[in-house]
């Protein structure tokens, strides 16, 4: 049973003529606050950092070490969709928007994109494949998951300094007990997603 992502999906695409394959992943669909963040990574087959895995299975120290290695050896880009965009177009479309921005921001254009999940962004015009649980299967997608998580976690730590009491420095905006208590006691901030039910319920209660 395979326990680590590998490079077989990318190698199959190379065999079909692709030269540059990008992996794309997003972080932050579930939180009640903060942006949704995506990363795109094109690994160099001759210089893949050791130890790449789904970001959720790595320690913060290991993720940071891999971040430095990826910046040295791969083409990378991180992008976001804002809280306002999430509320306007819904979280799925906002996550796809962030993915497209990350792909468009790469310094080179990939020949094929491996996208984590079961749907491809509608605006993506490049040849692409959706890979369910891709961060556990593809090294390129796993690498993207690392970059996206580090970038989004850093944003939430910064926001936690501006809006203490919600626990964002440790829960990254997910609906933990601390975060929900903060919502109840402190109210809704400009960085909360108003289209998400727990936030909307508090806003409605305030209006009533």
From TrEMBL:
It catalyses: Endonucleolytic cleavage to 5'-phosphomonoester. It holds the Pfam family RNase_HII. Manganese or magnesium. Binds 1 divalent metal ion per monomer in the absence of substrate. May bind a second metal ion after substrate binding. Its cofactor is Mn(2+); Mg(2+). Its EC number is 3.1.26.4. Residues 19-208 form the RNase H type-2 domain. A divalent metal cation binds at residues 25-26, 116. Endonuclease that specifically degrades the RNA of RNA-DNA hybrids. NCBIfam families: PRK00015.1-1 (NF000594), PRK00015.1-3 (NF000595). This is Ribonuclease HII. It comes from Pseudooceanicola marinus.
């Amino acid at each position: 049973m395979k326990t680590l992502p590998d490079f077989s999906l990318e190698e199959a695409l190379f065999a079909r003529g692709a030269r540059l394959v990008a992996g794309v992943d997003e972080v932050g669909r579930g939180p009640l606050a903060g942006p949704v963040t995506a990363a795109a990574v094109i690994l160099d087959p001759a210089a893949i950092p050791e130890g790449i895995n789904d970001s959720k299975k790595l320690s913060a120290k290991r993720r940071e070490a891999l971040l430095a290695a990826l910046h040295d050896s791969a083409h990378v880009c991180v992008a976001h969709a804002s809280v306002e965009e999430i509320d306007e177009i819904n979280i799925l479309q906002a996550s796809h928007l962030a993915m497209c921005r990350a792909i468009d921001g790469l310094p080179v254009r990939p020949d094929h994109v491996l996208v984590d999940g079961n749907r491809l962004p509608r605006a993506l015009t490049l040849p692409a494949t959706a890979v369910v649980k891709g961060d556990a299967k593809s090294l390129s997608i796993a690498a993207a998951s690392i970059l996206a998580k580090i970038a989004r976690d850093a944003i939430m730590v910064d926001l936690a300094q501006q809006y203490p009491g919600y626990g964002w420095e440790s829960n990254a905006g997910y609906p933990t007990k601390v975060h929900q208590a903060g919502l109840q006691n402190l109210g809704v901030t400009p960085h909360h997603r108003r289209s998400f039910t727990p936030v909307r319920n508090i806003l409605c209660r305030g209006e009533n």
